[in-house]
């Protein structure tokens, strides 16, 4: 099922082959925006891979006990998801260092590719084995046992194209794995839109048109914080009929003028009240300045979404962009 990942960002792919010449030729044929490290020593590569941070929030708990303030029974605690913790990953300058995919040769002195894969400590990392003709039966057996996720024959004419495609697919598969618990937790919340396949396709189209390379679940209002490779930010606001009703009710309580309510009801524009957690501000005068063009979309349910370029209130000035990370990475090779 095609879903919207609660978070995604580019990671650094590790290539391991005892032939430095093969690696040098290979890296010239990889996709230009791919972050990668090359190792001709399996031992050094294993130490590197096992020391990488795992993608995901790490500085504070993602899930925490939550109890409604009106509930006096502590036994009724549930596990609540901190959406703020998900979004704060964008401020982690180490996020691109994570390894989600390893590409390893089989026939290497001291440690073959199969042993290398067995000694990796993060079982979620996807593994691609590059093999020579003589190693093919070993690769097939390893694939069938689930030790590796793909195998590619070095001598195939389409090997590089297949490799580029496999790396892309397995990076996505890795994030599907690490995001699964978040998706399960949010299944019955205002973030249920993440599982809407039709909306996921629309978000993919929007991301492609804007050159988005990373995104993070956002809140108040709900949606996605998206960044392109240069670090330019966009906030995708997603509303359902239910969340719009809640927004409207609060606006009425705050004395919003008829003009605002009419604009909201038209579904042609959406507000981004960044100073008041998405809600209509008390005594708001210039509400028009907070409005952004919106689009209606029907999937499993009806949505209204808007894209806010350079969203205020998120303090993104010091965020490390992916382009800048690639420049730094090139300087270490």
UniProtKB/TrEMBL annotation:
Classification via PROSITE patterns: RESPONSE_REGULATORY
Annotated Gene3D superfamilies: 3.40.50.2300
Residue positions where 4-aspartylphosphate is found in the record: 105
Key words, A-Z: Phosphoprotein
GO biological process: phosphorelay signal transduction system
InterPro entries hit by this protein: CheY-like_superfamily, Sig_transdc_resp-reg_receiver
Domain (Response regulatory): residue spans on this chain: 12-168
UniProt key word Phosphoprotein: yes
Name under which the protein is recorded: Response regulator
Organism: Paraburkholderia panacisoli
Organism phylogeny: Bacteria, Pseudomonadati, Pseudomonadota, Betaproteobacteria, Burkholderiales
């Amino acid at each position: 099922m095609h879903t919207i990942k609660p978070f995604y960002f580019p990671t650094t792919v590790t290539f391991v082959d005892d032939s430095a010449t093969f690696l040098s030729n290979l890296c010239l044929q990889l996709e230009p925006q791919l972050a990668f490290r090359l190792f001709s020593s399996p031992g050094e590569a294993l130490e590197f891979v096992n020391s990488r941070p795992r993608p995901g929030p790490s500085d504070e708990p993602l899930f925490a006990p939550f109890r409604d303030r009106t509930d006096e029974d502590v036994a009724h605690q549930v596990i609540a998801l901190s959406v703020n913790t998900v979004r704060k990953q964008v401020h982690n300058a180490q996020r691109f260092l994570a390894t989600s995919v390893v590409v390893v040769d089989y026939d290497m002195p001291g440690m073959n590719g199969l042993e290398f894969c067995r000694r990796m400590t993060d079982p979620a990392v996807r593994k691609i084995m590059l093999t020579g003709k003589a190693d093919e039966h070993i690769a097939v057996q390893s694939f069938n046992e689930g030790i590796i996720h793909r195998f590619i024959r070095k001598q195939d004419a389409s090997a590089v194209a297949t490799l580029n495609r496999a790396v892309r697919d397995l990076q996505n598969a890795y994030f599907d794995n690490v995001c699964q618990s978040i998706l399960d937790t949010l299944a019955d919340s205002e973030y249920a839109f993440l599982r809407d396949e039709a909306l996921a396709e629309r978000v993919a189209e929007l991301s492609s048109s804007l050159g988005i390379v990373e995104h993070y679940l956002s809140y108040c209002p709900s949606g996605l914080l998206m960044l392109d490779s240069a670090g330019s930010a966009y906030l995708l606001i997603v509303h359902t009929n239910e969340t719009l009703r809640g927004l409207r009710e609060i606006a009425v309580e705050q004395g919003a003028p008829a003009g605002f309510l009419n604009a909201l009801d038209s579904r042609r524009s959406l507000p981004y009240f960044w100073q008041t957690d998405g809600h209509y501000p008390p005594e708001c005068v210039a509400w028009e300045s907070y409005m952004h063009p919106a689009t209606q979309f029907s999937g499993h349910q009806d949505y209204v979404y808007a894209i806010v370029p350079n969203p205020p209130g998120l303090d993104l000035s010091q965020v490390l962009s992916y382009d800048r990370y690639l420049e730094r990475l090139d300087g270490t090779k």
